[in-house]
Amino acid sequence: MKKHGWGPIRKNKAYLFVALVILITKMFVFNSCRGGRGFVVPNVLPEKTNQLNGADLDDTTLGKPAELNLSADRIRNQSSSEKNGFIASLIQPQKVLISEKKISPPSVLFRPRAVQRTVRVGIIPLQNSVKMFSLKGIKIFEALGESTRFCGLIEGEVVFKAKEKKIEVVTNLELKQNLFLHKLLIISELPVNVEQHSYRGEFEIQCQSNTEALTVINILPVEDYLKGVVPYEIGKLDSSVYDALKVQAVAARTYTLSKIGQNLERGFDVWATVEDQVYSGIKGEYPLCNRAIDETRGQVILYQDQYIQAYYFSTCGGNTTRIEEVWNKPAQPYLVGVKDESGSDVYCGSSKYFQWTEAWGRATLDLILNKTLADEEEINFRSDEIVDFNIVERGQSGRVKILEIVTRHGSYQIFGDRVRWVLRRSDLQNSILRSSYFDLEKKKNNSGQLDTLIVHGRGFGHGVGLCQVGAIGMARRGYHYIEILQHYYKKVGIVRVY
Fold this sequence. Notes:
Largest sheet: 7 strands, mixed
Strand content: 25-35%
Distance between the termini: 73 Å
Structural class: alpha+beta
Low-confidence stretches: 1-6, 28-103
Mean pLDDT: 81
């Protein structure tokens, strides 16, 4: 038998000693990490979930509902540099840092889907002529069904006119054809000036045969469109309320994507006005807004895997309201009334429209109602018939749900937001009433007839969804943009779809 001696035994002991040292080192590092800066774990995203209702989420999707709402204290205690770094890391797909307080950051689930990323915006409706100009000229194509035909490259100003149910092109350049039956497509390498406003993207000009007028449609990527929307909808805010810009970007993106393809009969998705979202092209772009749009790229608000109706408005006056109490629309679980406050601290309290008063003398009131009530009720209304005004019912938020106007020949009840359109303000434009969140004060003359009507109101806007000034107030108090969105839109998930 061969003798091995002591050498191999010493060698094996050396191996065991080294292994033991390595094991102890790993345990020490692991424990020190747990007790100190935290440890890093992979952020494994699910392949599929059935719901994105915030109340029903579990650990396999976005995490528990409490994990979706980042602790306000966690944010408020961070320094500015820490907060900026934390926000920038929200949608990093690689790793998530779990803090020593075991508080998960707000999560944005990345679930790519087939999304139409271009939007058609009606920038000029029903106008007889339109001027266009671009520094590198514009290329004109005639749209022929699914194909297009190149008509020419024109430098300098071009005027398009509606003529005999066709589109006439007026320019210094001689074209083989200057009268077109079909719609035109306009393309340029640089932004195009349309009626003194510069826009990105491409353009489509349609001749509305039933009105002998032109409609101009701006076709561009959704993210570029938002750059001309966010500054006009919420304002050019400073970096102290940066998260409010992110809130507006996500809400406006959700609203836009929910509208794409919903109005095929008119040829475009959204108007460039308050009828949808105010959009003014390149002119109003603001670097901080652009940054907020870029950092939330593709992020939308979903309820049960569907885009929400992301309504927003200026000032709620302390309470938002349910959608069904404002318009004749079905109730939505995410559009319910919320208290816009923390204790006695009202988030939109800094708005100049938080409280307001509007008054009408009898003559002015008669003049306004003679038009608005007649239009609303389709009646032959005479100004001397008004007897009284009564608030019949209020909604849960305190807004007027039914306003009764009593006349000599009967009573008329106005519902929800229509109250603002009937009882218009006494300014030169007869603008709609700031909100339906008000009380009535009636003054009568010696004969007992209504002489003056005074409204003491709160807020500005319809009151459904996101309160913009409230969002600014929450951002100023250190709330994260996901916290703010989930304060105003209940039971929703924030998801990046592209």
